[in-house]
Amino acid sequence: MLSASASPPAAITEYLRSHIRTVPDWPAPGVQFRDITPLLQNPRVFRVLIDAFVHRYMTPALRPDVVAGLDARGFILGSVVAYELNVGFVPIRKKGKLPFTTVEETYELEYGSATVELHADAVKPGDRVLLIDDLIATGGTMMAGRRLLERLGAEVTEGAAIVDLPELGGSARLRESGLPLFTLVEFDGH
C-alpha cells in the first residue's frame, strides 16, 4: 500500500521531467517557466502522467469521493483522473465564471490578489476530495481551493500536482497547514 508520502518511481519522474519544457525569462526576466504542454501533446507521455496519479489514488486509503481541479490546468488533469477513478469532478474557477450560487475565497498573489469560486452544491459534507493542479509555486491557489472545499464540509485528503517549485515555498506552506502533498517532478530555481 502506498503511504501519503510515497514518491513516484524515479524512472517515471525522470521520464515526465524530460517532457517538461523550460521557457527562460517568461513571463518576466529571470523566471524559468515550466511548461507542461509537451506532457499533454504526446499520447504516451500523457497516459504515463495520468496513470501515475490514478494508480496512487486507486489505493483504498487514498481513494477520493470527488476530484477537484484548480482553474485552469487542474481541469485537464483532474477531469481525466476523476474519469479513470469513476468519481465526480468539481471545477474551482476564477471569479465570475460559474453560473450558479457560489462560495468564494480571495488569496494573495505576489502582486495583488485573486479570487476563486466553487458552486455551493459542488461537494457534500464528509466528501473525501483530491485537490489537483498542474504546479505548486506559492501555494496560494491550492490553499484557497482547500478552504472553499472545507467551508462546504468536505475533507481535502491530499493536494496533488505535476510540478513542485519548492524554492517558492508553497509546498512547505501547504504541508505546514496539514495538507499532505503528492507531486511528480520537482524543479529548483524559478
TrEMBL record:
| Cited SUPFAM superfamilies | PRTase-like
Quote the EC number: 2.4.2.7
Compartments annotated for it: namely: Cytoplasm
**Which pathway is this protein assigned to?**
Purine metabolism; AMP biosynthesis via salvage pathway; AMP from adenine: step 1/1
Where is the Phosphoribosyltransferase domain positioned along the sequence? 39-165
Quaternary structure, per UniProt, is: Homodimer.
The name under which this protein is listed is: Adenine phosphoribosyltransferase
Species classification: Bacteria, Pseudomonadati, Pseudomonadota, Betaproteobacteria, Burkholderiales
